[in-house]
Amino acid sequence: MTHEFSITGMTCGSCVANVKKTLERVPGITAARVSLDPPIASLDMDRHVGLDELKAALKDYPKYQIGEVPAKAAKPAPPPVALEEKESFFKTYKPILLVFGYILGVTLLVELVADNFDGMRWMRHFMAGFFLVFSFFKLLDLPAFAMSYSSYDIVARRWLGWGYVYPFVELAFGLLFLTNFLPFFTNAATLLVMGISTVGVVQSLLAKRKFQCACLGAVFSLPMSTITLVEDLLMVGMAGAMLFLL
C-alpha cells in the first residue's frame, strides 16, 4: 500500500536525499519517493506505519517536519456558461417573448397576403394586437395587477385607481388602432400614456430594486428588466412615428 505525506523544511536536493534515506530505514517501508516541489513523500508500505513512527524517524533532523497531506480545497464552481444564461433568460421571459412573437408573426402575415407591405398599416395592426392581448392578461386579475402596477408606475403610486383604469385604457387603444378611428388622437394619447409609463420603468431600473413586471398582469411572475423598458419604448416609438407620418 502507498501513502502520501507532506514534508516541510526541505530546501535542496540534499534535503530530499536525507529524508528519502531516513524514511526507507523505517521498518515496514519498502520504498520512498520524495519530491521538493511539491514537498511530498510517497511511501510504499508492507504494513501500516503510523505518523508517530515517521516523526520519530526524523527526530535527528528537526527542520524536517512530516504530516498528513492537506485536503485539497474544493474548486470553486465554474461560472455559468453563456448557454445556461441564455436558457435562463428565455425560461424567465418565455411568456412575453411568445406573446411578442405571436403578434409580430400574425401582423407580418397580414401584410404578406396583402397586395403590398404598408408600414403604417403594419404598425397599426401590431399596436392593436399588443394592446388587446396585454389588456386581456391584466383583466384576468384586475386587483392583483393594480397592486403590482402601483409598486413602480409614477401615476399608480399616487392613485391606486389608475391601476384599475389602465387595462381598460389599453383595451380602448387596441380597438382604436384596429379600427383606425381618430388616428391622430389615438397616437397622441398612446404617446402620452406610454411615455409616462416609461418614466416609472426607468426609475425602477435605475434604483435597482426588484419589482415584478405587471405587463402581463399577475398571471405570470416576470421580473422588472430592460425587456419592460424595450416594450414601452417600442410603443412610444411606433406612436411617435405614426403621428409624424399622418
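Second entry:
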Amino acid sequence: MALQKNISLQPLNTFGINVKTKELAIIKDVAELKNILSNNLSPIYILGGGSNILFTKDFDGLILKNKLKGIQLINENNNEVYLKVASGEIWHEFVCYCIENNYCGIENLSLIPGSVGASPMQNIGAYGVEVKDFITEVEALHLKSLKTTHFSTNDCEFDYRSSIFKTKEKDNYFITAVTFKLNKQPNINTSYGAIQSELEAMGIRNPTIKDVSNAVINIRKSKLPDPKEIGNAGSFFKNPSVSNEKAISLKTNFPDIPNYPQSNGTTKIAAGWLIEQCGFKGKTYGNYGVHKNQALVLVNYGGAKGKDIYDLSSEIINAVNNKFGIELEREVNVI
C-alpha cells in the first residue's frame, strides 16, 4: 500500500486542529499493517477515532489510521456472550450493536467518542461503569517484533482511565482486537449521575438497556458539544483522587465540593466543579475556550492552534492547584 505524504490531519482529529503528518497509512487488515511496519523507520503514532488527541505541531513521522473492522461471536452460553471486536470499529456503533442484540453491560458507555481499540487503552468509563469489567482479552501487535500478544484482563493492569498500554507498554503495541464478555440478562445501573432523573423525565419507570442508553445519550448531548459542530475531545482532564484526609479538609473549606469515596481509601473529586469554581466555565479566548455547559471540555471554535488549547489547559491546572491544592491531570494525549 502506498503511503500518503504531507497530509493534513484536520479531518482526522475531533479538535479540528490543522496540522500535517509526514506520512499517513490507512490500516484495513493486519497483514497490511505488518508490511508497513516491516519497512518503516519513522516515528509512529496510532490514530483511532481521533477523539482523545491534541496536536500542537506537525507530526514528523508515520500516522497509522486504524480502520480494522469486524464483530465476531466466539462463544456463548445461557447467561453470557463473548464478542471479538476489531479495534477500528467505532465505539458507539458497537454499543448500539450490543443493545440491538440484547447484549447487556456497556449501555452506560453510550456516545463515548473514539474506537474500540482505545477502550482498553483508556479504560473508558462513565455513569458508574468501566469497560475493564467487560474485557476478557486484548489482542495487540508489537510494533517492532511484529509478534501478536494476547493480554488477559490482569495483564492489562487497568486503572482509572489507564492501562499498561498507557504506562509500561506505551507506544509499543497496535491493538488489533478486543474480546468482551457481555450479559444476556440486564443488570440495570441508574445510580450514577442524572440517569434516574432523566429516565423519570422520559416517563420510564422500568427501563430497558435501550432506555438507559437513550438517557445517557440525552445527558451527554445536553452537556457536551458535538465535535462536528465545535472542535473538542470530550473531557480534557481526569477526575483527581485525593486522600480521605485531604477530602475532609476540602469539605471543611468547600462544603459543596462533589466528592466520591473510593474502596481503596481515596476520594475522587469532580474536576469539572474545581475548574468551574476557578471561573473558567464558558470563558472564551477568541477562537477557543472552555465550553459553557461543561467545564471539563476545552473547545476549538475554529482555527485555533493546538498550542493555544494546551496553554489554556496549563492555565487551568495552575489555577486549580493554587485554589484547592490539587493538580489536575490531562486525560487527552498531547503530541
